[in-house]
Every structure is written in structure tokens, then in C-alpha cells.
Amino acid sequence: MKEILERINQPNDIKKVNKKDYVQLAKEIRSFLIRSISKTGGHLASNLGVVELTMALHLALNFPEDKLIFDVGHQAYTHKILTGRRKEFDTLRAYEGLSGFPKRKESDCDAFDTGHSSTSLSAAAGLATARDLAGKQYRVAAVIGDGALSGGMAYEALNHIGGSRSRMMIVLNDNNMSISENIGGMAAYLGKVRTNSKYMEFKGDLEQTLSKTKLGTKLAHGLKRSKDSLKHFIVPGMIFEDMGITYMGPIDGHNIELMVRAFKTALAANKPVLVHVVTEKGRGYDFAKENPAAFHGVEPFDIKTGKGIQPVSGKSYTRVFSEAVCTLAKENKKLAAITAAMPQGTGLDEFAKRYPERFFDVGIAEEHAVTFAAGLAVGGYQPIVAVYSTFLQRAYDQIVHDVCVGELPVVFAVDRAGIVGNDGETHQGILDLSYLSHIPGMTVMAPRDATELKKMLAFALKLKKPVALRYPRGTACDLKENRAPLMYGKAEVLYKENEIALLAIGSMVETALKVKELLQKEAYRVTVVNMRFVAPIDTDLLDEVAENHRVIVTLEENIAAGGLGEKVAAYYAEHGKKVRINCIALPDRYIEHGNAEVLREKYGLSAEKIAIRVRAFYQGN
User: Fold this and answer.
1) Which residues of 169-188 are buried (b: 16+ CB within 10 A; e: fewer)?
2) Cα separation of 51 and 175, whole Å?
3) Angle 317-331/450-463 helices, nearest 10 degrees?
4) Phi, psi at 408, each rounded to 5°
5) Would you say 405 and 367 are in contact if contact means Cβ atoms under 8 Å apart?
6) Residue ranges of the chain with pLDDT lower than 50?
7) Can you tell me the distance from the alpha carbon of 295 to that of 583, in angstroms, rounded to the nearest whole number?
8) Is 417 within 8 Å of 557 (Cβ atoms)?
9) Catalytic residue positions?
């Protein structure tokens, strides 16, 4: 028999499915997701949890006329399936393939480009306002997770929505998880609402009883209409209603027909309505259900065992950091560690087990994490904020105003720096050298390998000033070259010649060594320098290489604007040094999704591509 899923080939096809087949369709979608993601990798647990929720939204909305915005967007796989992109899933997150996030250029049914958390409500409010100003009638819905409600931007949007009374629907997808389990006051509040079945039971029993008499019917109708009715007596807080947003729920996020009725009611209202649905992350696949954090974002895996197919070749930089910070915390009782809802992703999960009193998960709130760290520093502690490069940029003002202006000893462990790969534009860590190194008082370092990462972390704590320590995703190397002592603002010369100088930072040091080998085969004499610092830059070293090299080449996995190359070139220009310099970096653009090695090859950061470019530059071409 032909699967129901095979009938879904374009937007709104789900409306042709018989109600009795909804459960079967949900099962088929889950099976498809598990099979597909096991081959391509991707976000699994979150997508398995919202299958029925997404189906109900598609039954209540019309696409592409109506606008649906997913917060973060990594849970939009079912939405993509229901809008006719199922046959492209074998290219999911691959170069030039289907994006793992909503993309307007990919489909008219994707209303907004998302990737970071806590943004959907602001975007939806803007779309609803644009609709009203233009005199149009399309409906606007935003899906936001309970984890995203720990982000301050969501509350800024709720405050605006409640005051403006914009006609829109907010779907609160409550699964008690962000990537890891949610923490904080909002998580506790929603937990009370989620488990308070007395409200729904009492409301139903009372209305049923009152409706048996004429007087009772009028009284029941009055209670239903009253803004300060049953909810305010029984459900604790009612924060959304108090903000001016009508609250519905909590309801079962896996009961399609119940959600469709709720969504249609909410969408018909001439005001903002929040529908609270409770879902189960990882539903339908035991491994993901039991350990949703591990199955948040996965590489290709074996469905039967849940284990990754690709063998782990060595420790990742994240794990090297994890071990180093735990070692340092054993001796340094003032060391504290902070994460924004990513203890496992940043490697702080082990620290949390060993030193729970000095570990702080603040939720998806990078701005708060940074200023909280500043407060800890003023109080005499040495906080380490472990965060992905792409997420740290959300806290730029706090880094400047609350940490660097006061010269506070906060260390930023900046993970996933450089090209990250399959998650695309919103997740590539290609801006941090630029946006961090121009902040007065900020020291910016990048290790060449695993051993140097450990040394730099210890060094950063001893500096007792603002420090950003940048390192990439993936397996950590350990280079065989001799190590010079780590000194503030000083580079390390790995090989010294007198023709071509390669000045590399971080992950590009390993690449520079490969470039040297390629060029040496053609008798070029190549100096290789591990710059170590981008702020401050080693000007003594720059003076030295300018004296005895015909060309100077900088290498970085960062955009060109404001990076290492521009700083080196600016120094030479400022001091009137006539040197031939070639700055090799990523272009000043957002880098699309795809395999990291494929992207490095495309943008000229592979050793082979760099060697060709250096040779041509040396020869004056």
C-alpha cells in the first residue's frame, strides 16, 4: 500500500489527508526523519518532538499565504516535508543541498531566516505589524520553545506584543528542554502550569455542571468571558495574561485534532493568543527520547544501536578544554564556569559534576551570562564563560561595557571558531577575531593545537584581565614542532627561513605547515610563525620578518575585514614599511552550509589552494 507521506508533495497537501490517517502519517514522518537523519546527520530529537505540532499548524494555516516562524529553526524538518521538500532530504545540510534551518530563498513557505534562539516573537510581531500597515489579512504564527523563553529578547517581544495587541498566535512548545534540560525561574513556572491538571479538570467539571440549568448557563458564560476568571484562581502566576496575551492550555502536543481546534480558535481572535502545548523531545525513537541532549545534533548513526557511524579519531578541542578547566579548578578555588544552556556542547558537563557549586547554567541568555560573569569577577572570582563563537556575538555590548571597560578578569572560551560546516550562515564562527580584537583591553589568543590550548587557558587566568581564547570544532591535533615559552603578546617562530613568511593564527598553523612542505618541494624557503595573539599583535616579530622576507602571507579562518591580515597590513602601512603582503582569509560574506572541508576548499583555505596562491603572489602574478 502506498504510504500516506507519498501523497504530500506540495504545500497544503496535508489538508487532503483523512483525519483517521493523522496518526499513521505522523508515524511515517517519524520513520522518514530517523532514516534520513541517520544518513545525513542533523537535528533529530527536536524534530521528532514536533511532528504532530507541525501537522496541526499546517492543517490550521494556509501556505505560503500565512506566515509561520520557528524559533531557532532546527525543528522545521517536518515543515519542510509538508511543504514539498521531502525528496531533497538526502542533501540535508550538505553543500548546495537542503538547509537544516528555514531559508526564504529555499521556499516561499519559510517566512523568516532563523538560526539563533529567542528571535521568533520579535520577527512575528514585525510581520504582523507590516500586515496591518499594508491592510492585508494573512495570519502570523510563531513557535517558540520553553528553552528559548530563557532568552531576554523573548520577553522584550512579549512586552511589545502584549502592549500593541498585535493579531498573532504564539505556540509555546514546552518539552522542558533547550539542548540540555531547562533551568531557571521560567522553567519552574512552566513546570507548575504543565503539571496543574486541576485547572483543566475543574474548569470542565464546573462548566458542565452549570450548563444544566438556565441560570447556570448564563453564569458559566460569564465566567468564560471574564478575563480574571478561573485561570487566575487556580493556575499560578498567569504571566502571559497579565502581559496582555490571552493564554490557552496546556494541551497535549501530540493530539493533532485537539491542537487544530485550539489553533483555529487562536488564529480567529483579533488579539495575541498564546497556545501552550506540551511535547516530548525525541518521541518515537528510544535512544533520542532517553537522551535528547545527545541526539540534539547528530552525525550519521546506526539506527539499531544509536551510535555514530564515523569512528572518533581523537579528542575534540571541546574535550581538551573540558579536561583543562577541570584540572585548573582543582587548584584554583576561585575559578567558576558559566554556560548559556550548553553544558555538553561546551564541555562543561564534567565541570558541573565535579564542581557544581561553581558551575552556572544561565539558560539561553548570553548577554546575562557575560554580565553575570562580570559580577562574579568584581566579587573576587575568576569566571570562564564557555560559549560558541556564533552565540558570543549576541553579547557584544556586555563584553564591551560590563567586562572590558572595567578591565575585569573574565575569560571567554570561544568554541566552534572558524568554519563549523553543516549548520550554515547563522552558525559559522567567522567574525570573532574581528569583533573581539578591536575592543580596547581585550586580549585575543588562539592555540595552534591541543597542548597549547591547555597552556593558554592557564595563562589566561594568570593574566587577570579580559581574555578571549578561540579554538575550532573537531579533533584536536598536537603538532610535533618545538614549543617556545608562552609570553604575553609574543608569537612563536616554528621554522625560520628568509624568503616567504607565513603568519598563521590558530587552526591555520597546521595548514601553514602543510603549505610549507608543498612550497619546499619547489625549493622555496619558508618561515612559519604561530602568531598566538591577534590582540595585542607581536610588532617586534612583524618588524623582523619585514627585514628579511620578500613576501609576507597571513592565514586565518575568519573574514578578512578586521582580522589578523588587516591588522598586520595596517601596522606596516602606519610605520611606512614597504612590504609585499598577501592576506589570506575568508571573504567578507556569510558562509553557506556544507561539509567544512568542502567549504575550506571552495574559499581557498586548503593547503593546496594556499600554496598555489602564495606561489603566484611570490612570482608577481
Assistant:
1) bbbbbbbbbbbbbbbbebbe
2) 13
3) 40
4) -85, 145
5) no
6) 178, 194-195, 197-204, 206-207, 210, 223, 225-230, 233-234, 236-237
7) 39
8) yes
9) 281, 366, 394
